[in-house]
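Readers of this paper often ask what the protein records in our data store actually look like. This encoding replaces a full spatial description with a residue-level series of whole-number codes. For reference, a complete record is included directly beneath this paragraph.
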Amino acid sequence: MKKLIMLVTMSGLISTRGETVNFDDAKPGAAPPGWTTTKTGKGEPKWTVAKDDTAPSKPNVLKQSGEATYPVCIKDDTSLKDGFVEVKFKPVSGKEDQAGGVIWRAKDADNYYIARANALEDNVTIYHTIKGKRTEKKRVSLKVAGNQWHTLRVEFAGSHFKVALDGKPALEWDDATFKDAGMVGVWTKADSVTLFDDFSYGSQ
């Protein structure tokens, strides 16, 4: 009986297991250790740790200040099939886009799911990217204020995905393109200068 209770308890702990990266132990001006700083498509992204007085957890944030088709930063050594990914992001500037996003079940920089919020368009959208080609699947109009911190979260279980912005449900979508476990990370588009902090992820 004691073993059964212990197993149930352990199972409960595992279902809520998660980790948070706040970049505060990383060196400002350099790429964050334990991450692959890359892109989908062309261009020169610039992913660096930076000090920011507005950071939700001071002093550091992850900053993307380069320009590429889709700048991508992938957390190494992650493999999640069912779980969640969440980040706090601040769209700072960009003439073409002011976006912040999260990716999950990523195989590499060209194959992944993505949910993103855009301050220029005031919407939240979900996509899949296959062999470098991004395809929009669903979007919803929501206010995404520029130069303010927001929280974007995706919960994924099987083929069902739920996206929330600032703690409020945004959209849901079903898809079975990527069924296996994959990596998680963050994403921007084009000339977006975006800050990220408190990147959290966990398995169910």
